[in-house]
Please model this.
Amino acid sequence: GQQLNQSPQSMFIQEGEDVSMNCTSSSIFNTWLWYKQEPGEGPVLLIALYKAGELTSNGRLTAQFGITRKDSFLNISASIPSDVGIYFCAGAISSGSARQLTFGSGTQLTVLP
Amino acid sequence: DTEVTQTPKHLVMGMTNKKSLKCEQHMGHRAMYWYKQKAKKPPELMFVYSYEKLSINESVPSRFSPECPNSSLLNLHLHALQPEDSALYLCASSQVDMGFLREKLFFGSGTQLSVL
Model:
C-alpha cells in the first residue's frame, strides 16, 4: 500500500517563529489533507487540497499540493502556544468505491514561550 | 453542527468484560468509521460503514464487533480484549457522493481504552 514520509518527526520552536513540515510519497494522491491533534482529542481537519499546485490558506496556516502529486507541505506563520500538537498529513486516492486515506507518521510541534 | 460525539471518554475494562463504545453524528453523513490510535502514532483504520452496511473490515480480530443501527449511530462492541488493545478509539464520519466515500473525515474526540 501507499506510504507517506512525514518530516520532521518533532520540532521545538520559539513563539513567533514560522514552521514548515512536509509529506512525501512514492505514489500519486488525488487529495491531501492536513489534520491537527491535541492531547486527549481527535484529529481536527485544518486544510484540504484537491488539485496539483493548489495553495490554500486557513488563517496563519498555508498548505500546498505538490505539482508531482506526490508531496504536500504545511507552513504555520508566527507560531503561538496553542499551535502545540501533532500535525498529520493524509493522502487519499480513489480505490473502487472508497477514497482510502493514508496517514503520515505525524509531526510533534512544541512552541516555547 | 459539525460534531461527532463519542462516549464514554475513558474506559477501563478487564480481559473478560464486555463493553461498548458509542458514536453519534448529525451531519447527515452516510459513511462512518472506526479507527484505533496508539500514543503519538497515526490513526489506523479498523472498519468502514457506508449506508449502514459494513464495507471495509481491515482484518480486525473478532473480539471487536462493529454495529451501525442507523445512519447517525455507530457502535463498537468489545469482548475478551487483550492489554495490547489499549488505545484511543476514534470514530469518524464523511459524506458519500455518487457512491464514493468522501475523503474529508470528521473525527470525534475518541474513547481512551485501557485493558487490564
Observations:
- Chain B has no helices and 13 strands.
- The radius of gyration of chain B is 13 Å.
- The interface with chain A takes residues 4, 6, 40-43, 45, 48, 50, 55-56, 90, 92, 99-110, 112 of chain B (CB under 8 Å).
